Amino acid sequence: KFPHDFASRLDLREDDGSDDNRSSSLGRSAHSDTSDYQDEVPEYFDDIPLVAAQDLTNVLKQGHLEKKRKDHSFFGSEWQKRWCVLNNSIFYYFGSEKDKQQKGSFLISDYNVRLANNLRKDSKRNACFEFTAPGRRAFQFTASSPQEAREW
Description:
Residues 58-152 form the PH domain. This protein is 8% helix and 27% strand. It has two helices and seven strands. The model is unreliable at 1-18 and 20-44 (pLDDT under 50).
């Protein structure tokens, strides 16, 4: 009956909400006000425009990686398969290589990257790496092999 009232109390997300602070256009997130939709206005990440995976240029590396969820829930995996693309200045991640817009992106110049074998305890632990920056969210990934992690 009162969808606006009801929606404003909920944390509505486009997918499972594990990749970023996006909210649906139905209401604002109770947890974040930095990248919510506002009346169908396109969403940006660090002032990076939305772009389809297939439209990216100057690609240095692309492929599937597992991304550690920001908000790991009790249900589902802590790691999600993502199509990742690195160009000469931005790291993008998508749900798949066919996605019309990224789930997230960040300027690589703002981050340091390092191998991080402490992120997992399983056989993939030597294929992990992370992007970190003071005062910013860390992004953690697992490649298919230690060699591929070094290439990223």
